[in-house]
Amino acid sequence: MDDLSSEALAAFRLDGKVALITGAASGLGQATAELFAAVGASVVVADLNGGAAAATAEQIAEIGPAMGVAVDVADAELPSDARFAVGQIRNPRDGLNGSCFSYPLAPALRGEG
Question: pTM score > 0.85 for this model?
Fold first, then answer.
């Protein structure tokens, strides 16, 4: 990121936060995951294609902490491997913060599902 971009994003720091981003193995989801990592978030790259999610997370790990996980957002229950990834990447004192996800995952992430 160039100096101008870094300066413009200074107000949007996500240090110490975890972002679970769906559809993050490619396209806009990947760009979002890279941006969140660039502003300090630890990123869980969630995608239906688990292999692609892992590969994208490996690339993002050059920017900051990242893990890839297979997630089907059509499933209302957050899979245990996604819960594990969030638990492994987050700061234990902060819990789950700054998440970006599709609606079906929201109840599960809030402990309601």
Answer: no
**In the block, residue with structure tokens 């234990």:** 92
- Scan for tokens 């990592």, then name that residue: 37
pLDDT digits (tens, 9 = 90+) for 52-92: 999 999 999 999 999 998 888 777 666 666 666 666 665 54
- Rounded to a whole number of angstroms, the CA Rg of the chain reads 13
Q: Which amino acid is at 100?
A: C
The beta-strand segments (E) located in 12-82 are: 18-22, 42-47, 66-70
Residue 93: how many other CB atoms lie within 10 Å: 6
Torsion angle in degrees (nearest 10) through CA of 66, 62, 14, 75: -30
Superfamily of domain 3-109: NAD(P)-binding Rossmann-like Domain (3.40.50.720)
Q: Give the residue extent of every domain in the chain.
A: 3-109
SS3 content of the chain, % helix, strand, coil (to 5): 45, 15, 40
